Amino acid sequence: MPEKVLTSRDISEVNEPLSAFAEWLKEAEASEPNDPTAVALASVDSDGMPNVRMVLLKGFDERGFVFYTNFESQKGEEILQQKKAAMCFHWKSLRRQVRIRGDIEVVSDEEADAYYQSRARASRIGAWASKQSRPLESRFALEKEVAKYTAKYALGQVPRPPHWGGIRIIPTYIELWKDGAFRLHDRIVFQRSNSGEDWTKSRLYP
């Protein structure tokens, strides 16, 4: 475990949420039994109906939080249409949660290509084979698609599909939540109107 742990008092003293998130994520990587970067991703469809699913965080910095997806999937279409999304990390081993809301942007081709080529070859083939979120008549049909693209890209690099890439959530709201005794939790909220602005900090009732 990292030497420093953000206690309840320490949360109150945090004035910038991204450094606190980085520290919490580092601790989660040491304590969570599986997928410390797993995060619930929320979007809204064209009828205003919400959807939520788990994805993996693949990077974050001062610009925002990045995950990768098929842009033609349900989540891809919803997020690109609405231009906004939300995330919720919950690290059970640490009894902590982080909520994030904001607008989105598509990451650059260079950034997407670099991450895509870092994936296992079978995962790169899968990005071509899976028509994500669309009806699948049988498992065999998916296996046929995998075989087709495995043969097509038998030699050399597997190129990134044009419909696959990264989405960055540019945070305007970040909430740090820490479990407290008798449900008297600590909730510290940071808000700003636009990227690059200073954060405004407040505390919420649990």
Describe the structure.
The protein is of the alpha+beta class. Strands 1, 2, 3, 4, 5, 6, 7, 8 and 9 form a 9-stranded antiparallel β-sheet that branches. The longest helix is centred in the first third of the chain and has 15 residues, at 17-31. The chain has a domain at 8-108 and 166-203: Roll (Pnp Oxidase, Chain A), CATH 2.30.110. Helix 5 (121-129) packs across helix 6. The protein has 6 helices and 9 strands, in the order H-H-E-E-E-E-H-E-E-H-H-H-E-E-E.
Basic shape: elongated
Major sheet size, sense and barrel closure: 9 strands, antiparallel
The top level CATH class name of the domain at 8-108 and 166-203: Mainly Beta
CATH architecture of the domain at 8-108 and 166-203: Roll
What's the CATH H-level homologous superfamily of the domain at 8-108 and 166-203?
Electron Transport, Fmn-binding Protein, Chain A
Helix content: 25-40%
Number of helices: 6
What does the average pLDDT come to?
Answer: 94
Report the uncertain regions: none
Helix and strand content put the structural class at: alpha+beta
Q: What is the H-and-E element order?
A: HHEEEEHEEHHHEEE
